[in-house]
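Justification of resources, computational component.

The compute hours requested in this renewal are based largely on the per-chain cost of generating structure records like the one below. Each record pairs the submitted sequence with a full structure-token output. That output is archived, and it is also reused by downstream analysis tasks.
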Amino acid sequence: MNLESPKVTVAKSAQHIFDALSDVKNFEKLMPENIAKFEVLGDDIFNFGLKGMPEIKLKMKDKTPHSKVVLAAASDKLPFTLTANIDAISDAQSAVQLHFEGDFNPMMAMMIKGPISKFIETLAENMNKL
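The structure output for this chain reads:
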């Protein structure tokens, strides 16, 4: 299952967005209002839970300076990645788009597609909070 957020323009440099997303503590600023839990477990891993959803651990998987940050589920039960693609528009502006890629059975995919789509849209909309 592949999902994409809308591309958002942020009044920050690509380097600023990359640096902010490289620090897992900053993901708390991006979370939706219905967050029930957010806990940093280490330099490259955090745990979060939304009301009515199971808690998810995300771990930093890969980084390409100033253009890409990839997070992956720390559990094999729900294998997925969340990639932030960062494009510099100017020195003080960048475009960010999130890509969610997961390997789920059709029933699970049908159940989580709506909530995950809304979740990554919210993360993208909150990029200007970084």
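The beta strands are 2-4, 8-10, 35-42, 45-50, 56-64, 68-73, 80-90, 93-102. The mean pLDDT is 95.
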